[in-house]
Structure formats: C-alpha cells, structure tokens
C-alpha cells in the first residue's frame, strides 16, 4: 500500500473549508503539509523554495491561475495533481500531460491514493 | 462578198446552239417580255436582241427583261460567246456583229436616224450561222429587219414575225411579212415554241431527203399549175432543201402530207415559191470580177458603139436589181469619163414579181451601200431617211420586167448578158440549153458574164474565155441556133398568179367540156378577139388573117402591133373609147385592106365585166379582090386622113407636154413627199426611241407605285411614331402614330418642324436634330408629354440614304418616339423599392455584396466597404476580404465559399475582423450563388456586425462558467464543512445544527449576488446586512461604513469569518447576555499599488468575556478564520478586553473594485 507517510505535500487551495479538510486528511495519512497556501505569490514562493515531494494544486486562486507555480514544480520534477472545479481537462492535459485532474467535489480517498501513486 | 452556194449554206453544220436574232423597236419591250416569258426552263436556244435605242440614254432593258424570263438576260459588253439559255441585249449607241459565235460591238457608220441595226445584225448572223440562225421581227415602226431576214432565209435559216394585230406598232412586222419570206406569223408568246420545234425537227430528220425526191415531180407539177412556173428543171438538191424547210416550218413529217397541203393551199404554194426563188444579191458582188468586166467589156462596148445604136444589156434573174444597177453605174461612169453620150438599155428580168417591184423602186438599205465604191456612190446614189436611192439617171437606164428564162423567148441583139448565180439553180438539162440560148441572143462579139460557180460547160465552141476568174466570155462568131427543145409556153404578163390562175381556170372551164362550143366559135360565129386591159390579145377565134399580120422580130401580143393598118385605125379608137366609157362601141362598114383585097366588116368592141374586151368582127360583105397598086384615094379621104393625122400629131405633142408637165409636178410632189417622209422617219425614229424609254420608265413607275403603296400602308399602320426631316428641319415624311407627339397633317409636309405644335415637353429637339445632322451620331433620351402622363424614348437618327449599296451624305434626320411610360413607371417603382431596401439594410447595419466567382471582383456597398476597410474608389476583390479577415479564419472562409459555390447551397459563416484599434469585430456573412452552372456565376449576399451578440454570448459563457465553478466550489466547501464538523462534533444532532447554520449563512451571503449585474463584485453593505440581519431583531447589532464593493470571491471567506465571530458572540460574547451590543465599522485606506485596504472592525461590548483557551485557538473555528483570512489575503487581529472582544480585519481591495456601487 502506497503511503504518504512522512511525505511533504504542498497544498494549494483558497477555500478555507476545503483546505482544512484536505489538510486534516493529509495529516491523518501521515504526511506533512506545506501550507495550505491560498494565493499565487505564496504558492510560487513555496514551489520554488520549499522541499516538496508532491503537490495538490487548486487551479483558481481568487482570480489568478496556479499555473506559474505548476510550471515551477514541473521544472523541479515535483509531481502534482490538480484539484479544481474547472473542467478544462483537455487544456490541462495538453500543458501538463503527467498531471491528473480531480474535479470538485472530489472523492478525497481517490485523491490521496492517486497522490500516493505518483510518489511510488 | 463571195457567191454562196445555197446548198452549202443550208447544210452548214451547226456547232452552236440555234442563235435567234430578235429585232424590235417601239412597243418591243412588251413583245420581248411576252415572247421570252414563254420560254421553257432549260431551253437551249440563244437570243440576240437588237432594239432601236436612244444612244444617250442608259438602258435598263436587260434588267427589266431578266425578271420576266427563265433565260439569263445580259447586256452585251462585247466579246461574249453565245451560250444556250441566254438572251443578249444590245446596248444603246452600238452596232452589233457576230463572228464564229462571238458578239462584237461596233460603232455606227451612218448618222443617227438612218441606221438599220436590225438589218445589219441579221446580215452578219446569216453569214456567220447559216442554217443555224433564225430571226424574229417584233413590234416597231419602219421596216428595219425586212432586208436582213432575206439573208437569213437565203442561208437556210427561218424567220418569224409578230402577228401585226398583237403589236403596238405593226410597221416592222408588216414590212417583214410583206417580203413574203416570213415562215411564222404568231403572237409573241407562241413564237419561241415554234422555233424550238423547228430546230428539234431538223435534228430529228434522217434520210427524209430520199422520200422527198420521190414526190418532187408531183410537187413541181402542183407548183406549175398554181404559180405558172416549172421548177422541175431546177437543181433537185436545192428544191429538196427548200421543201424540207417548209415542212419543218409547218411541222409536217411526211412528204406526201406536204404534197396534199400544197394541192389545197395556194398560200403555201406561194410560200414555197418564195423560198425557192430567194436569191440575195448585192451591188458589185465579187468586186474584182466587176473590175474585169469594166476593163474588158464595158470599155470595149463603149468604144464600139455609136450614138445611133443603143448598147443593149440583159440581166436575167435580176432579183432585187442590184446587179443591173451595178452595170448601169459602170456604164454611166465609163461614159462620163470618156465624155461620150450613148444610150444604154439594160433589160433586167426575173420571174419574181415582188422582187421586180422592189427593184424598180431603186431603194436599198444603207448597209448595201458599202459595196459601192465611194466615188460612184457619191455620184449615182443619194441617201434618204434610212435607205438610199439610185439616181434617176441610172434608174432610167434599167427596165425591169417579168420574164422566165425557161419559158419565154430571149431578148436579142444584145451586147452583154450578165447572168450570175441563176444557173446554179437549174438542173443539168436546162443549164446545157441555156448557154446556146445566150449565144443566140448575143450579137457578134457580145460578152457573157457568169457567176463564180458557173461556167460555159461544154460550149467552148460558142464562147471564148476573156477572163476565166471573172467568168467573162466573148461570143464566138457564127449563127446562133435557137435551141429547139426549149419549152415555150404561153406567157401571161401582169397580174398575180392567183388572178391569172383563176382566170385560166375560168377560161378552161369554159372551153374544156364543150367541144361543140369550140366548134361554134371557131366556124360559125363571127371572128372575135378577146383583149386584156393592156390591149394584148388574150385569145381569138375565127379567121383573122385578113385583119392581123404577124410582124417579124420580137413576138408580141399587142393588138396594135398585130392589126393591119385599116383594122388598127378602126379598132384602136373604139377600144380606147370602150375603155373610157365602159360601153359597147360599134362601127359599120369598115373597110380593111389586106394583101389581096378589101373586106368590109362591122366592128364591135364590147367591154366585159372582168376588164377584158370583146372585139367582134362581122363580115358585112363579100371579099373584094383588089390589087394593091390600084389604090386610089379620094383626095378628100387623103386630106381627111392627113387632117386626122395632123390632129393626132398635135394632140400627141400636147399630150407629151402635158405628160411632161405632169411628170415635173409629180417630181416636185415626190420631192415634198420625200421631205415629209424624211421628217416623218426622223420623228418616227425619235418616237421609237422615246417609246422604248417610255416603256422602261413605265415599268419603273409601276414598281415605284407598288413600293409607294407599300410605304403608305406601312406609314399608316405602324405603331412606331416617326417623323423624318430634311436638312432644313422641314417635315419630309411621318407615320400616323406621330400625332400624339406632333399633330401633323399631310399638308404639313415641307413645313418647318419648329412651327408645328409640340405635345411633349422638351425645348431642345430641333437643336439636337441639327446636332445629329452634323455629327452623324445618333442621340437618345427621354421626353415627357406635356400633361405629364406619358414618357417617350426619343431617338434622333441621321438620315443617310443608300445609293447603290453605299451610304451617301446625311440628308436629314429621323425622329422616333417609343412610348416607355409603362417602363418608366416600372423604373420609378424599382428605384423606390431599391431605396426602401437600402434604408432597411442600412438600418439593420447590413452590407450587400455581389461576388463574381470567376474573377473575384465584388461589387459592394458602403457598409461592406466599412466592414472590410476597402477604400471608396477601389474595385473590391477577393484579396481585400481575405486580408481583412483574422488569419485563423481565412482557410475556413475559402473552403466554405468554395463549397457553397459548387453546391449552390447557402453559405453562412461567422468570422473575425481585427479592427485597427486592436479590437475584434465579429461579422456574419450569408449568401448564395446564382446559377452555379454559368461560367461566371455570381454570389449575392450580406454581411452584418454580430460583435455585440458575440460579446454577449461570450459574457454569458463566462458567467455560466463562473457559476458552474462557484457551485462546484460551494458543494466542495459544504462537503468539507461536513467532514470537518464530523471530526469535531460527535453528536450528530449538534453536528447537523452547526453545519446547517453555517450553510444557511453561506447561502444567505451568496444570495446577494443574484441582485447584481456584475458577477465580479458585491456590495459590502449588502453582504454585512445579509449576514447580520438575522441577529438584529433580538440583539443590539449595528453596522456602519461607506459603500464599498468587494470581490465576489470574498463572500465565502468573509461570510465564514463573520459567521464564526457571530457564533462566538452568541455563545460566549456580547450577544450571549443582556445589554450586550455589537458594532461593525469599516473604512477604506489607500495602500498604494492600485490597492486599498479595507479595515473592518468587530467590536463587542458588554458581557463578560473570557479569552479563549489555547485549545480553542487551534480549534476548528479559529482555524477556519485564519484560513479564510488567508484566502482573503487578509490579516486578522483579535483583541480581548474586559468589555468585550474586538476583531480587526485588514483586507486588500483592488482600486477597481473600491468604488461606489
């Protein structure tokens, strides 16, 4: 069983409730949470500077899109998944073919196991 | 001209089609048209038409004739070879000859007025074509053609004349018929058919000659009976040919039928006679021979002659007399040269009465003149109106009389016999007998002059040759023997054959059956003599020797010559008296002395009804014998006789002088007559020409009349309104329909158009008409009627009549008016509709285009130009559009247009046009191809601006997207909410309560977005109001602050934060006890960088407040607040004081949002 134990996961999500839930779940899974981060500047800083094993990225942060941070992560070869209410799957797949998209509301279990897969 | 063997001529092998000469004059055009009009298609005859024409007048004859016949009619230009199926017409001012079938024009020798073109041509045609020729004489005055047709006949051709009663002028036909040589007399339309039959019969005949030979004797017998001449001695072949020709003419195939015909038809006998006798002669025939004659015979004879004895010449077979006159001229000239005066008597004889009459006249056609040497011509001939005459002196030298070489005794004591081209007609027997006859008739050393195809045969003993070539011989001395076997039968002189025959028949019928009667007359009745009008004895019976005495010398029938003196002296006066009074004369006791005595007689002279006289001699007494010498006459008687003789002499003298006076008067009258006739001939000539011209003009006038009628009908009936003006702008012609424009009447012709009332409103018509006249360029425009109800299209055209196929100068103008009112109305309607459409389109912001699929050229209106930024003056094409369209849309555009072009289906597209200011304009285009099969098919369509709609759509999409997003988000939030709550609150009822209140607050917060048009921001006041309102009814809650918009995305976090604070306040804070109050205050502080900071203060007052315990800080609520604040990029500071807690929220707000709602 893939675990997220001892993994450092960057959590980018601007909706407080959703951020809280995900944070709790990650913590329950034994992971360490970087964030939750709610805006792009902070996300960029984290993506560049923090030690991260994987990331969960919400796409719309207020009015900004998370993609600059995603690109940084991709450059750092840090795997990530998208977790969003946006449904432009094709576009995402084109730009980030390796990143899975989980549409809100999500089956959190699935999200976490998917993340674990990435890290395996 | 050399002598022609008629046999040769008739056998001439025609290698041309039959050539027919046609002569016509006044009234001829009509006759020719009728005649040629009856010619069948494909005829192989050829016609040459000679007509008397005015030489100064251009003739249209050929053209006029050509229309009326299946033949091709051409005016002769010269050099044409005659072809079958053609008619050749002589042009004015020319004479015509034919040689070897080729027509040549020549100038006239003679002055105008005395020309005989028809004769001239017929002579030429006869000479050239012989038996292949024919001639036709049609209407005309005068006698042109009568001489020429003889030549045609002589050479074996045939002749036809127009039936005089069908001819407008019968002069020429009558003259022709008068020659007796015309074979057919028919109305014009029947002539050609007969002639065609003649020629085809001729072709068809084979070996007919043989069967004719069988009948020749019988035919000659009939002829002899009828006309009194025996042709059995004539050359068989000649006779055969002549008979044959008559048969062709009459269309008789069997000689036996012809024999039957002449037995019963006297006219046919005469026709055959004429044909047989035909013999054309001319002056100085074979001129070299006459030179020889002149040199040898004429000069010698004159030498030998003396003043007392006349030089006697005989010309047998003289025909129309040319030869006789030739010899006369020669003698006259020679005598004049030698300055001698001698009497010359020339006896010219022939059996052809008609020829003799003509010869006596001494008039010949001018064409005959050419043969006479000039110097002689001048001296011995004089020209008159169309012919020339032999001088009277010459005429007096020649005596013409009827004499048959075969039957009648010859003349005697002759110095010269000229017998040329007569013997060739005779058979061998006669020929053999004639030369000795001539020998007998000539004096010693007399001359014989024969024709070039004749000779003296075996009679060298009788004649010595003087000039063989000239056929001139001299009589060898020796006694001439009268040829015994020469038939001499009774000769009847003077009257026509028919009368004579009738008489003979009468007489014979009297004599024949009754022998007893003969006996009675001969023996018992008194002796009698029957005399004719001239005093010749017709017959006699009884003993007449006492009364008549036959003198020596020339046999005669004259009673006066035969009667003995006494008898003569008695009977002559009685005969005279009987003639004058037409009454019986009687005398008694006339003594007639004869050789042996005296016989007394009673004498009666009784004129009979038929013009003859019966002289009855009754012996009154016995014969008294006496001896001649016993004659003693009473002086009285002698005196009486002398007196009578004296009286007689005086009377004779008086008579002679009277006669001379009469003759002189006669001559003068003749002279005046000749002058008048000459004037008449000239007038006739002009008349003929004028009539010909008149015919042509009439024909033209008829045509013109017809055309004029057509024109009038057209002008009246056409609906086209037309008026023609001349160069002075005067009315020349107009149609009826013009009346609605210009009310013209026929009397307005010649009036200036400017004077005519005008029913259309236009002042420039005349001016423009003048301009058209000058420039020759047509003009067209619209004019309206004065009352405005009608519109006309007016055309002004130059009037340039064609002459001979070429346009001449401009002679006027033609104005036409077409009523285009209807059209005009339609046009106006169309314009109105178009305008409406344009307005509608303009209002709709639609541009219209017309795209040519082949060339790409597009016709566009202003709207389209604006859409695609195409300059005003440029012709739009496909590239202009492509360049204007957004590059991403171009390929699609092209493909879709092509598809539409091929399929003919509607084309619809939306595309972007980037504007110069950077914005994007969305255009829609729709169109359809018209007639996609055509080469340059066109697509018509519209463009319209859909930018607004598009933007609205885009905005809507965006909204929907956002809504979607938000909804998803909210669900997620709620789920998270649930999950979180589940961790914290074990009791499900409490859990539900908590979550419900949270959800409700959230729902309330989001409600406010509904009321906003913008989805980007919400009013803070509304948000706070919505969130806090539920508490106001039960608690002291107030809020206050400026109207500020906050981003929509902040609703949830703000809502959550304030809900948390509210819950806390309710649970532990100011709102949990009485007297507690809550006050919210906010304001905006500028923060630089296009942002402001919202400072929101949550001040609770009253009630005990305990600061939260540590676990609470990390509890769900505070976690939520801190995360939410993070979401807002806000800072939250909470201060707990005794009076209550104060939360402060510091949230950045973009300036764009921070505006009044």
Number of domains of chain A: 1
Number of separate domains of chain B: 7
CATH classification class of the largest domain in chain B: Alpha Beta
What oligomeric state is this? heterodimer
Rg of chain A, alpha carbons? 13 Å
Name the CATH homologous superfamily of the largest domain in chain B: Methylesterase CheB, C-terminal domain
Low-confidence runs of chain A (pLDDT<50, min 5 residues)? none
Basic shape of chain A: globular
Shape of chain B: rod-shaped
Under the CATH scheme, which class of chain A? Answer: Alpha Beta
Description:
Chain A is of the alpha/beta class. Chain A has one domain (8-107): Response regulator (Rossmann fold, 3-Layer(aba) Sandwich), CATH 3.40.50. Chain A is 42% helix and 22% strand. Chain A is built from five helices and seven strands; from the N terminus they run βαβαβββαβαβα. Chain A has helices at residues 16-28, 40-49, 67-75, 89-95, 108-119, and strands at residues 8-12, 32-37, 54-57, 60-61, 64-65, 80-84, 101-103. In chain A, strands 2-1-3-6-7 form a five-stranded parallel β-sheet, with helices on both faces. Chain A has a two-stranded antiparallel sheet with strand order 4-5. The longest helix of chain A is centred in the N-terminal third of the chain and has 13 residues, at 16-28. The model of chain A has no long low-confidence stretch (mean pLDDT 86). Chain B folds into seven domains: 6-207, Rossmann fold, CATH 3.40.50.180; 208-271; 281-475, Vaccinia Virus protein VP39 (Rossmann fold, 3-Layer(aba) Sandwich); 514-631, 2-Layer Sandwich (Beta-Lactamase), CATH 3.30.450.20; 718-825, Beta-Lactamase (2-Layer Sandwich); 845-945, Beta-Lactamase (2-Layer Sandwich); 987-1150, Histidine kinase-like ATPase, C-terminal domain (Heat Shock Protein 90), CATH 3.30.565. The model of chain B is unreliable at 488-498 (pLDDT under 50). Chain B has 1157 residues and is an alpha+beta fold. A seven-stranded parallel β-sheet of chain B has the order 3-4-2-1-7-8-9, sandwiched between helices. In chain B, strands 15-11-10-16-17-19-18 form a seven-stranded mixed β-sheet. Chain B has 34 helices and 45 strands. The N and C termini of chain B lie far apart (145 Å). Chain B is rod-shaped. In chain B, strand 13 (381-384) and strand 14 (387-390) form a beta hairpin. Chain A binds chain B through residues 14-22, 24, 36-39, 60, 62-63, 85-87, 103-106, 108, and chain B through 964-969, 971-977, 979-980, 983, 1047, 1049, 1052-1053, 1056, 1116, 1119-1120, 1123-1124, 1126-1127, 1129.
């Amino acid at each position: 069983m893939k675990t997220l134990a001892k993994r450092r996961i960057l959590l980018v999500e601007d909706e407080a409730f959703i951020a809280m839930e995900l944070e709790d779940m990650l913590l329950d899974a034994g992971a360490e949470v970087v964030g939750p981060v709610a805006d792009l500047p902070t996300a960029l800083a984290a993506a560049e500077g923090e030690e991260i094993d994987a990331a969960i990225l919400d796409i719309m942060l207020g009015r900004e899109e998370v993609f600059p941070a995603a690109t940084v992560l991709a450059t750092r070869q840090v795997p990530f998944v998208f977790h969003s209410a946006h449904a432009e799957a094709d576009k995402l797949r084109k730009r980030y073919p390796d990143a899975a998209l989980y549409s809100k509301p999500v089956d959190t279990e699935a999200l976490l196991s998917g993340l674990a897969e990435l890290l395996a | 001209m050399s002598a022609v063997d008629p046999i040769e001529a008739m056998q001439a092998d025609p290698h041309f089609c039959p050539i027919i000469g046609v002569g016509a004059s006044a009234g001829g055009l009509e006759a020719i048209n009728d005649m040629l009009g009856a010619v069948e298609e494909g005829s192989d005859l050829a016609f040459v038409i000679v007509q008397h024409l005015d030489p100064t007048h251009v003739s249209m004859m050929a053209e006029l004739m050509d229309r009326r016949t299946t033949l091709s009619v051409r005016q002769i230009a010269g050099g044409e070879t005659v072809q079958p199926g053609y008619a050749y017409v002589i042009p004015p001012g020319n004479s015509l000859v034919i040689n070897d079938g080729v027509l040549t024009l020549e100038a006239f020798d003679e002055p105008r007025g005395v020309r005989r073109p028809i004769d001239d041509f017929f002579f030429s045609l006869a000479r050239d074509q012989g038996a292949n020729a024919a001639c036709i004489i049609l209407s005309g005055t005068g006698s042109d053609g009568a001489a020429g047709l003889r030549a045609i006949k002589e050479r074996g051709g045939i002749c036809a004349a127009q039936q005089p009663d069908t001819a407008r002028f019968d002069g020429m036909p009558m003259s022709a018929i008068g020659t007796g040589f015309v074979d057919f007399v028919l109305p014009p339309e029947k002539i050609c058919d007969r002639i065609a039959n003649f020629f085809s019969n001729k072709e068809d005949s084979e070996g007919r000659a043989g069967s004719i030979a069988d009948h020749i004797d019988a035919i000659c017998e009939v002829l002899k009976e009828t006309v009194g001449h025996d042709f059995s001695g004539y050359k068989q072949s000649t006779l055969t040919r002549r008979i044959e020709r008559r048969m062709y003419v009459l269309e008789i195939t069997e000689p036996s039928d012809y024999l039957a015909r002449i037995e019963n038809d006297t006219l046919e006998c005469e026709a055959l006679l004429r044909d047989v006798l035909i013999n054309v002669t001319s002056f100085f025939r074979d001129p070299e021979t006459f030179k020889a004659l002149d040199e040898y015979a004429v000069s010698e004879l004159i030498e030998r002659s003396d003043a007392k004895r006349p030089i006697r010449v005989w010309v047998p077979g003289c025909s129309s007399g040319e030869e006789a006159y030739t010899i006369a001229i020669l003698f006259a000239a020679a005598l004049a040269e030698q300055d001698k005066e001698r009497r010359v008597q020339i006896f010219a004889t022939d059996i052809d009465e008609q020829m003799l009459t003509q010869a006596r006249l001494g008039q010949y056609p001018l064409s005959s003149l050419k043969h006479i040497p000039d110097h002689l011509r001048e001296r011995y001939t004089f020209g008159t109106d169309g012919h020339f005459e032999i001088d009277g002196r010459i005429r007096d030298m020649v005596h013409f009389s009827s004499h048959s070489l075969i039957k009648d005794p010859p003349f005697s004591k002759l110095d010269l016999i000229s017998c040329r081209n007569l013997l060739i007609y005779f058979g061998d027997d006669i020929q053999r007998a004639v030369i000795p006859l001539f020998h007998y008739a000539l004096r010693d050393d007399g001359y014989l002059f024969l024709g070039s195809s004749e000779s003296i045969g075996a009679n060298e003993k009788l004649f010595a040759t003087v000039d063989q070539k000239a056929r001139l011989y001299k009589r060898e001395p020796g006694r001439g023997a009268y040829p015994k076997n020469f038939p001499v039968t009774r000769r009847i002189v003077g009257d026509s054959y028919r009368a004579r025959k009738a008489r003979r028949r009468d007489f014979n019928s009297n004599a024949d059956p009754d022998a007893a009667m003969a006996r009675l007359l001969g023996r018992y009745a008194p002796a009698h003599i029957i005399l004719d009008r001239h005093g010749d004895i017709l017959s006699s019976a009884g003993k007449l020797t006492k009364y008549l005495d036959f003198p020596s010398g020339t046999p005669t029938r004259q009673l006066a010559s035969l009667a003995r003196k006494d008898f003569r002296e008695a009977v002559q006066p009685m005969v005279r008296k009987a003639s004058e009074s037409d009454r019986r004369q009687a005398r008694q006791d006339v003594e007639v002395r004869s050789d042996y005595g005296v016989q007394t007689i009673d004498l009666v002279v009784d004129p009979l009804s038929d013009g003859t006289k019966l002289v009855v001699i009754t012996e009154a007494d016995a014969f008294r014998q006496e001896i001649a010498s016993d004659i003693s006459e009473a002086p009285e008687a002698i005196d009486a006789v002398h007196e009578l003789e004296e009286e007689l002499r005086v009377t004779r003298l008086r008579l002679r002088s009277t006669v001379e006076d009469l003759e002189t008067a006669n001559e003068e009258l003749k002279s005046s007559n000749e002058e008048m006739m000459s004037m008449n001939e000239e007038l006739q000539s002009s008349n003929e020409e004028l009539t010909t011209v008149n015919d042509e003009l009439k024909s033209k006038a008829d045509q013109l009349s017809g055309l004029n009628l057509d024109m009038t009908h057209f002008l009246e009936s056409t609906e086209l309104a037309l008026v023609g003006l001349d160069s002075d702008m005067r009315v020349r012609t107009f149609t009826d329909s013009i009346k609605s424009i210009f009310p013209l009447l026929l009397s307005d012709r010649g009036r200036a158009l400017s004077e005519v009332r005008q029913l259309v409103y236009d002042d420039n018509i005349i001016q423009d008409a003048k301009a058209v006249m000058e420039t020759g360029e047509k003009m067209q425009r619209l004019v309206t009627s004065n009352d405005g109800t009608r519109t006309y299209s007016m055309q002004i055209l130059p009037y340039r009549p064609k002459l001979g196929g070429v346009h001449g100068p401009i002679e006027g103008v033609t104005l036409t008016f077409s009523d285009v009112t209807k059209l005009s109305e339609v046009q106006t309607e169309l314009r109105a509709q178009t305008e409406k459409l344009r307005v509608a389109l303009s209002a709709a912001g639609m541009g219209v285009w017309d795209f040519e699929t082949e060339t790409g050229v597009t016709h566009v209106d202003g709207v389209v130009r604006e859409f695609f930024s195409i300059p005003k003056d440029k012709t739009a094409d496909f590239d202009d559009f492509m360049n204007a369209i957004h590059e991403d849309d171009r390929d699609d555009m092209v493909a879709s247009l092509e598809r539409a072009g091929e399929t003919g289906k509607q084309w619809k597209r939306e595309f972007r046009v980037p504007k110069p200011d950077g914005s994007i304009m969305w255009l829609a285009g729709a169109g359809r191809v018209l007639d996609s099969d055509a080469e340059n098919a066109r697509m018509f369509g519209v463009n319209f601006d859909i930018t607004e709609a598009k933007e609205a759509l885009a905005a809507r999409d965006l909204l929907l997207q956002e809504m979607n997003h938000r909804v998803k988000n909210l669900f997620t939030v709620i789920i998270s909410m649930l999950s979180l709550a589940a961790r914290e609150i074990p009791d499900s009822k409490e859990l539900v309560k908590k979550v419900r209140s949270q959800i409700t607050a959230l729902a309330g917060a989001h409600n406010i977005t509904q009321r906003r048009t913008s989805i980007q921001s919400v009013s803070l006041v509304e948000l706070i109001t919505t969130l806090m309102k539920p508490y106001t009814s039960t608690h002291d809650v107030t809020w206050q602050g400026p109207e500020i918009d906050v981003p929509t995305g902040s609703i949830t976090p703000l809502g959550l934060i304030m809900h948390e604070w509210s819950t806390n306040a309710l649970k532990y804070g100011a709102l949990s006890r009485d007297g507690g109050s809550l006050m919210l205050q906010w304001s905006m502080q500028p923060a630089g960088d296009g942002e402001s900071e919202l400072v929101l203060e949550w001040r609770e007052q009253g009630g005990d407040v305990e600061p939260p315990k540590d676990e609470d800080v990390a509890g769900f609520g505070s976690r939520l607040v801190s995360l939410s604040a993070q979401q807002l990029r806000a800072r939250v500071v909470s201060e707990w004081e005794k009076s209550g807690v104060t939360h402060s929220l510091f949230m950045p707000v973009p300036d764009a949002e921070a505006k009044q709602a």
